[in-house]
Protein 1
Amino acid sequence: MHSFVAILPLLSGCVFAPGADAPASQPLDLAPAAQAFELAQPGQTLALLDDPALWLPFDPACPALILGDGGVERWQGDCAMADGGMVFGSLEHFVGADHRWVAGNGLQVVDAVGATILYLDGAVELLSAGELASIGASFTACGFERPCALGAATVDLALSVFPYSGYPSRYDLAVEGAVATAQLEPTAVSGTVSIDLEVCGIEPSSGTLLVHGDAPWGLDFDGASACDACAATAFEGLPVGPGCADWL
């Protein structure tokens, strides 16, 4: 089993929320909350667990695939590709019956003009028990769902998805952890939401999301009854009106 080293601690003092004395009548800017929720969803994390041959550069020799003991694949970089690009670092990948993990060790793919198009440093591990998938993720990455031109995203998350066979259309998601990008300062996120894209494709059908800081936001979703991309919003525990954003 791969061991994780947390790279982004849960922070209680760094938030995007306005100061505690901000009048409730001011327009609510929940775009950062939506960005944090997007990063906390399992899409990018699960994409990393796919067969690396699907997302690594198509080159017969670089990176080199080395089959290790116990079914572990190692993709070794520090080599040049035929198109003039380079691969640095390495990647390890394992798939078992109810256990999968991937670990990037400074894996970086650079194209022929020197631009980074893929980066992964850190690890993801998935354990499944029936329809419950438990996921641990601690990594910095770009080039998957997030283009490297925007900078890498860093996540340190514990996720559970149920039922796993319902993902990505209909499932319950529990999340606890923290996320950050160049545009989003470190933000702690926790909560449990239900997502059913047939019922509502723009917000969770139900559930509560907390964005933690000195003065936390609370977001209660009701997409099953009012699919309008707006959540009942509380600031420091006090209702401050609907908060609307691009949630899904």
Protein 2
Amino acid sequence: MMGIMNVKAIKTIFLISIIILSITGLVIISGSSHELEIVTKARLMPKLGDYNTEIDYFYVDDFLISGNYTYLCGHKTHTTKLFLAKFSDNGTMEWYKIFNESYGYSYNQYAALITVDSSGNIYFLTTRHIPGNDTGMLVLLKLAPNSTVLWEKDIGTIYKFKYFYTIMQMSDNAILIVANTYLHNLTLLKLNLDGATIWTHTEAFGDNAVIVTTKTLVVNSTIYTLVVKKNAPTAVADKNLILFKFSSEGQRLSYKTVVERYSTAIDLESFKYSADDSRLVFLFSNNTIYKMTLSGQIEHKFSLSSVDFYYYQDIAIDDTTGELYAVRGMDYSVDIVKLDESLNYLHTFSLSFDKKNDTVSLGYNHAVFVKNGYLYLAVSVGKSNYHIWAYFFKMHERISPVWLLLTTTLTITLTASIILLLYNVKKNVQVKEQHKTS
């Protein structure tokens, strides 16, 4: 009798242990149910004669999804050697061009930026490199959908524009360029599709002010520009983030200081529009994301440092759900954090590369887009400063098959263990009742 009781006790303990382990396993894997599946992976593939296999590398400066095509542009080996490539949605490279002229002023934040009009024509913005001269001239090239250069135009004088920040399509018949004049002035230029100037507008900040960076959006023909300004000489906490609002004709409608006197070590990384709730969203280099109204009233704030310390570089917003994706490049991977429309944390994803690749660099101006439920990512991957290639990835989110298998297995195990445990308890009670009556 004692032996039977020991066996029953051992069975009970065993079943309780399985139940505890199953519950623990379900808790552990509960946060990793989602993953990103790569649908398309494409790489810039130039012919051998168009690059030096020993020294050349390709860094993405800008990235655009337009229609059924993806465009990458950037610099090759040096910021005065530029490339532009067009891919179909399935990753097939339609064509590429490598510009060996002295474009791409080396002091600019980007070597080149692009936009595409409704007819598929590409507008390629860079600068004329002036050797030995600390200045630059804006250069705009228009290319046909088949890559033929239709025209090239210089904008401004040699000494006027040193930095450029934005080129985008404003409407079916106009594009917008935002540039920096002599470091102190912000200039907006609206051009028609032949490159002729429709209007210009300049905001002068004074000789003691320096524009550090700026990001611009066009929302329903209204222009929103965030400007990071600091004073010279610079104090430790002397940056201000200013939101300007301009009409489609270049009149300033309003301006507001959104964040005052913050550290000079912090810069503006990304600025996007959330169509789901008509809000503006921006990312600082200290991993802080802000969401504000179109008038500049901050409503939500989230620190990605609560997820991880390393800084994130770009954000993208799903226009349908309002969900936000923040991305950063690491040594061997790209990390992606997903937040809901109120900036609450949802998931973290990781796109890993072979560890022989010690350089993973995101697109400098744009690195990530969300379109029709797919996440697009532009990244440069390779070894040190050579054999680095420009890629783009098209991905979609799904329930992880491994997670689904583990969850199903643990759930079945947990359910079966509970049923067996209840059966054993019931049986033990019945046995005890029989002993009492006998």
Protein 3
Amino acid sequence: MVSSHPRHYSKGRGSIQVKSLLSGWITIFVLWGLITTAHGYDWESLKVGVSTAADVKKVLGEPTHEYRDQLLYENQRLDVEDPSFPPVRLNTVVLNLDTDKKIESIFLFPLYGTTNKELRPLFGVGHRMPYRTFLSSMGEFKVGAGTRPNEKLHYIELDAPCEVYPQFRILVIYGIQDVITGDDLIRLIVAY
């Protein structure tokens, strides 16, 4: 039922749909504000948008594989400041480079079995959402498996659960849940 005010829904599904729509847009605008004002996360003293390929090689040595726009390293780690927590072991690290050879983003692939609880000492609790919501907050509307936003091929399902830490410019994409603990298994950590 609609009241005398044309934008006020008093009962029924319309009220839920409007609230849901507003909630989604508010989430996107809040995230966008946090994303655009965040300073970013530095891994091994390397900072997205600042450090160059030469800086990476000074810090990490020669990469396992080097491509025109990527440096790939294996068997790295993500150190936790709290000594009571072990470092997060990384299977692969991909540093994506822009045309000026500056780091555009860092993809951290942890060893299989790494869970969200292992990242809590580093980042705390972030904002949970589907990957599609994160992408739309970044202005990417044409994405999906097999497309190339920003010339990087994405294979992440749009409904994949993720957690955003805008204050660090970190995105954590989850896969399945551990059947015993119920913890989320991490597929990918992105510093953007």
Protein 4
Amino acid sequence: MGYDTVSLVIPASSIVHWDDAPLLREIDLTIGFIRNFDTCPRIIVHAFSHTGWLSLGLLLERGGSEQQIDGIIIDSAPSLSFGPQLLAKGLAAAYFRLPNPGLLSMVFLPIAHFFLSRHATKALVSKSDAVLNAFLQDGAGKLEELYVYSSGDAIISEEDIAAHVQTRTHQSCRVKSIVFYGCNHVHLYKDRVRDYQDALCDFMLRCEVK
């Protein structure tokens, strides 16, 4: 379809860092890269989990590129209760490679929760959520939105994502959601390659012709 790809990977350590500077530095580098395009690009954002949700809010807050965004694809997010407990579950799954935390991660979870409740970037998360929600409100009826998630997600509640989609639908937004059954957290593409590709291609075509 002729899209250039710009990737932003936020390490888990950036979310729990004593200082917000490393995370914001990655955000600013990405914004600078986008601004270096010869022509003003039209943007489709593809974000994964609540870290991707956080990153999108920060990109908007620091980059001011909301007018260039035609659509957003949100994979396995958002959670209505983002905080230390959710971060701890995500870290356990990432480090132990377990979609459903077992004995080892059950020992890890209370320790991670204790640490994250004191050192996670709470102010940054709150600011990001506020900016992103304002962006979505302004884009109601104009912005294309696709939410893809799994009924088997042990990290972020399927009900949370469904509730967000329902809210957006009631606000007369151009929103669509697709549920993949039995996939692990952010493993939708890995587990269902063809279905995932078809859903995203259809969405990008809809963004082009709107």
